[in-house]
Amino acid sequence: MSYHALYRQYRPSRFCEVVGQEHITDVLRNQIRTGRIAHAYLFSGSRGTGKTSTARILARAVNCLDPKDGEPCGKCAACLTDVSESIDIIEMDAASNSKVDEMRALLEKAEFAPIYLKTKVYIIDEAHMLSKSANNALLKTLEEPPAHVVFILATTEPQALPATILSRCQRFDFRRLSVHNLAANTRRVLRSAGAEIEDEALMCIARAADGGMRDCLSIADQCLSFCGDADGTEQKLITQQDVLSVLGSMNADFLFDFADSVLHSDTAAVMKNIEQVVSGGRDIGVFVQDLSNHFRSLLLAKVCGSCADILDCTQDTMERYLAQAESAGKARLERTLDALMQLQPNLRWVTMPRVLLESTLLKVCHPDEQTDMTALIDRMEELERRLKSGAFVSAEPKAASDSAQSSGSRSDNSNNSNNSDNSGNKEAGSASSENGKAAAEPALPTPPVVSDSFEVPAATPEAEELFRTFMAALMKTDMMLGIQIQLAAAHWLENENLFICFDKSKRSNYNYANTPEVKAKLRRAAGESIAPHGVELVLKDGSVVAKKDVPTELFGVEITEV
Question: What is this structure's pTM?
Answer without folding.
Answer: 0.61
